[in-house]
Amino acid sequence: MLSVSMRLRSFLLASATALIPGAVSAQTGSFTSLPAVTVDAPAQQRAVTKRKPRQAAPDIRAAHGGTAPAVIPAAATPSIPGALTVLTAQQALREIQQTPGGVALVTADQWKNSTPSNTIKDILDYVPGVFAQPKWGDDTRLSIRGSSLSRNFHLRGVQLYMDGIPINTADGYGDFQEIDPTAYKYVEVFKGGNALRFGANSLGGAINFVTPTGRDGLLKDSGLNAVSLDMGAFGFRRLQASTGGANGPWDGFITASTQSADGYRDHSYGDATRVSGNVGYQFSPDFETRFYLNANSVRQRIPGSVSKDSALNTPTIAAANNLTGDQQRNIDTVRLANKTTIRLDNTTIDFGLFGVDRHLMHPIFQYLDYRYQDYGGFAKVSDDRMIGGYRNVFVAGVNVINGRIDNNQYVNIAGQKGALASSSIDSSKNTSVYVENSLYVLPSVALIGGTQFLYATRNRKDRFLSDGDQSGSTEFNLWSPKGGVLWNIDPTWQAYANISRSAEVPSFGESSSGPGIPTIPFTSIRPQRATTYEIGTRGRRPDVTWELTGYRANITDELQCLYSAFGNCNVTNADRTIHQGIEAGLGIAVLKGMFDASAQPDRLWLNMAYTLNDFRFDNDPLYGNNLLPGAPRHYLRAELLYKHANGFYLGPNVEWVPESYYVDSANTLKTEPYALLGLKAGVDNGGTYSGYIEARNILDTRYIASASILNVATATSPLFEPGTGRAIYAGIKARW
Q: How far apart are CA 72 and CA 67, in angstroms?
């Protein structure tokens, strides 16, 4: 096993310095942020009988104090032979904002050049409705609209994609060790049923991490070729490099990073080496294929959850069992994929295949040695044309995601394998078919309807029968319809509303057994279903951007923690629950022209993201109308940045959880409220060099960053992950 790991690490490190033959240098500069809204030009202005050359969007200045046109004109920019298989950020923004619900697109310049870019929290910090809190290393507790609250480990309820290719295992689990925040040019967030375009059907929706292509080097300020160095508190250090370019019909891109950190807590050392790359070939301006490679080698020790008292008073101390068992999560992954795009007059066809080989070496209460082989394919057709004088956008697709887990668990002897304790082959199959149609009954109003059908199976073959035969299989047939309306009130202001259904198939981890609690095998767990009602608005004016969404999800059979054994949550079906809330984002120039009143004046920009969570049982036989544990009722992230046209920025930020929240379904134990103060400064004018310095938790506040949950907790229940103490990070980057 050691030799395999060392070979993979050598391959990854070598890939970090690989060059693409014939590549041309990218233009100097950095990719700039996008405004909150970019409304498509009215369909009646479009030609529908002739193919047009692919066009690049113009340079757009950051919402954080920059200036931008209210609308990106559909034909105001020169033609650039960009990639067909991967949209530019501007094109992706146009597309995502045709969704009648809560969505977000976060461009790389909002986190890459001004933060350590170490975890998914750095990417999603200012997306309302998303609660992302690191636990240790790269591991993060992520919830969107209350998804996955019952999962004390791994992710469920949000479907993760890399370049549209699934990251989650076939039975639904997800982790963040394979996410490299330095690798992406933008990240798309689709909340809840708004993720229909991926065939996603979970309560939390989907997140898509998009890497650059070699053809991005043909765009202004791409920063495609770059090297960066970041260092900071608790032994954090990272080196990252990327390069790419295009030569005739060929293009390619590769990025790699290697990092390590001692960690704030004892027994939290980790290191990771990651590489992502793609090679594309254009047979013609309307026909392109692209091959993807993603590989990761991650080694991470786990400090573990502790009691509330320990988390607040001795936060650096690791859990005793984690030390004696030398608990770790180690992952080696290789992902290969292909995507092909064909563009016709009014129709675009995308299709492809992918395969993932993942090895998890995970000594915890037992030594988990899992080998995953996930594979599948996808096809999608998009048609945008005038029908009877009305614009009509039709999208249909199919996704196949299958997988096999060679599941072996051993007695954990100080982090080494002991005797075999269990063994099985777990197989999952998922086929989803989806369709969505948007009819513009007025040039500015679209009526949108769609549905998804999911066929899924789960099959377990038990190979360790001394403790009984745990074999079994399940089959699911689930429909998830959706309807909505999108109103482009003016070119910079949208309103929307929708009603959607979601259905979440249980994974192999959902079951219940133990002393004094009912035994419910995984084959008896029902799928989680929800009906979500949503209404909202988003927009941009020259000095203000906003997003405001309200939603309510009525859920049946939510996968929740109703029982526990040995201090661990057993996930089964609750009867009825309610998730509702408000997601609000605001960016506003509080002051401008303070020291520079030129055409691009300096600005004092306030950026805020506020989330109100109201999650509760609905007349539950066990817990009545208790609040669901695991998420704060209020969560605020805000920063006040002075920004100058020369690229200098400086300002404080705050993370505030003003109320404690419960960590058990019985509502007997809470966390504590907290407020964290930070400060950052830097220079990034789009030129060759940029740099930043950031201080986090300046007051060295002791707080609980995240919490696992139980059905009934006590004061000594080990459920809490201490937040990191005072930390300073700095980084420099060169790009050309």
A: 13
Beta-strand ranges (E) seen in 74-136 are 103-107, 130-136
* pTM of the predicted protein model: 0.88
The Cα 250–Cα 290 span in angstroms is 10
Q: Are 701 and 673 in contact (CB under 8 A)?
A: no
CB-CB contact of 667 with 626 (8 Å): yes
725 in Cβ contact with 705 (< 8 Å): no
* R_g over Cα of the chain: 25
Q: Which amino acid is at 507?
A: S
Sheet of strand 103-107, all strands in order from the earlier edge strand to the far edge? 103-107, 186-191, 205-210, 159-162, 165-166
Structural domain total, the chain: 1
| C-beta separation of 451 from 434 below 8 A | yes
* Contact residues for 320 (Cβ-Cβ < 8 A; gap 6+): none
For residue 388, give the H/E element and its range. Answer: none
Which conformational region is residue 447 in: left (phi greater than 0), alpha (psi within -120 to 50 degrees), or beta? beta
Tens of pLDDT, residue by residue over 493-524, are: 999 999 999 998 988 888 777 676 778 888 89
Q: Are 283 and 24 in contact (CB under 8 A)?
A: no
Burial of residue 414, with CB atoms counted within 10 A of its CB: 0-12 exposed, 13-18 middle, 19 or more buried = exposed
Instruction: Please give the Cα distance from 627 to 664 (Å, whole number).
Output: 9
Q: Which residue in 213, 212, 120 sits closest to 175, CA to CA?
A: 120
Domain residues for the domain of 354 are 2-735
Could you give the CA distance from residue 707 to residue 134 in angstroms, rounded to a whole number? 10
Residues 404-447 have pLDDT tens digits of 999 999 999 999 999 999 999 999 999 999 999 999 999 999 99
The CA distance from 44 to 29, in Å, is: 36
- What are φ and ψ of residue 9, in 5° steps? -60, -40
Element (H, E) at 514: none
